[in-house]
Amino acid sequence: MKARLLFPHPYRMYGWILLLPFLALGIAHLYFEFNLDILSVKLPTYTKDTFYNEGNLTDELAALGLIISLLFIAFSKEKIEDEQIAKLRLDSLQWSVYFNYAVLVLAIIFIHGMAFLDAMVYNMFTLLIFFIIRFRWVVAKENRLLINQGGHEE
Amino acid sequence: MKNNIRVERALRNITQASLAEMIGVSRQTINTIESGRYVPSTVLALKISRIFEKPVNELFELEDTD
């Protein structure tokens, strides 16, 4: 079977390695207002009064790093990437889209004001996180079934 | 859909792992097909039929629910 727009298998590990520092950076920024000084820059404001604002790119760096590492983890090939894995992947993707929107619907109903903005920040990453959890879970479940009934042939 | 791959495999003394290797899938895939949790593509069914030298119809069978 041909590859389906997936990263090579080792990228999953690269993803986990990248995730740690970017997750730490994101949490430090979000909860402890941590900013990297070298990322302080003038940013375009797109308003009539001023062209530039003092800004800091720490959150941009953290967000981009998180997205890239989560994409690597989510969409790297399995060791043996075949059609059955592709089906599990597709099922998990559909499940996670439903689940993510269910969470978002609850957030829209119950969370208001600035807190909703926080919810949207989390929502940028939760689709991938839900997908990763669900996909790894079904793969692990199949592996358990295999070990339980067939012994250890591999 | 039913199949008798497990029986055919036992008759020829082929393990799940070696059948998986012969047709280029994971052992997990063979296991899910045998237990009816996964219906293989036509390509995969034809590969299995080539290994067992039997027509696909003799390996896979429709059920009333299909």
Tags for this entry?
heterodimer; A: 154 residues; mainly alpha; 2 domains; two-stranded antiparallel sheet; 2 strands; B: 66 residues; 434 Repressor (Amino-terminal Domain); two-stranded antiparallel ribbon; 5 helices; 59% helix; globular
Structure overview:
The complex is a heterodimer of chains A (154) and B (66). Chain A contains four helices and two strands. Chain A has 154 residues and is mainly α. Chain A has two domains: 1-79, no CATH class; 82-154. Chain A has a two-stranded antiparallel sheet with strand order 1-2. In chain A, a hairpin with a 7-residue loop joins strand 1 and strand 2 (52-56). Chain A starts with 10 loop residues before the first helix and ends with a helix. The model of chain A has no long low-confidence stretch (mean pLDDT 89). Chain B is mainly alpha-helical and 66 residues long. Chain B has a single domain (2-61), classed as Orthogonal Bundle (434 Repressor (Amino-terminal Domain)), CATH 1.10.260. A two-stranded antiparallel ribbon of chain B has the order 1-2. In chain B, helix 2 (16-23) packs across helix 3. The mean pLDDT of chain B is 93. The interface between A and B is medium-sized, with 17 and 19 residues.
Outline the low-pLDDT stretches of chain A. none
Q: What is the approximate shape of chain B?
A: globular
Write down the overall geometry of chain A.
elongated
Q: Which CATH class of chain B is shown?
A: Mainly Alpha
What topology, given as strand order, has the largest sheet of chain B? 1-2
- Say how many strands of chain B there are: 2
- Give the helix level of chain A as a range of percent: 55-70%
CATH level-3 fold name of chain B: 434 Repressor (Amino-terminal Domain)
Domains of chain B, number: 1
